[in-house]
Amino acid sequence: MSSLFTKGPFDPDFGAKSLHSQLGAQRKHKIWAVGGGKGGVGKSLITANLSICLALMGHKVVAIDLDLGGANLHTCLGVPVPDKTLSDYLSKKVKNLSDLQTPTLINNLSIISGAQDDVGIANLKQMHKAKILSRLGELEADFIILDLGAGTTFNTLDFFIAADQGILTTLPEPTSIENTYRFIRSVYHRKLKMVEDLLELGPVIDQAMNVKISQQSTPADLITRVIEINPNMGHRLKAELNRLKPKLVINQVRTQADIDIGFSMKIICRKYFGIDLDYVGYLDYDATVWQSVKRRRPLLMEFPNSSLVANFDKIVHRLLELS
Ligand SMILES: Nc1ncnc2c1ncn2[C@@H]1O[C@H](COP(=O)(O)OP(=O)(O)O)[C@@H](O)[C@H]1O
Ligand SMILES: [Mg+2]
Question: Topology of domain 28-181+246-322, per CATH?
Answer without folding.
Answer: Rossmann fold (3.40.50)
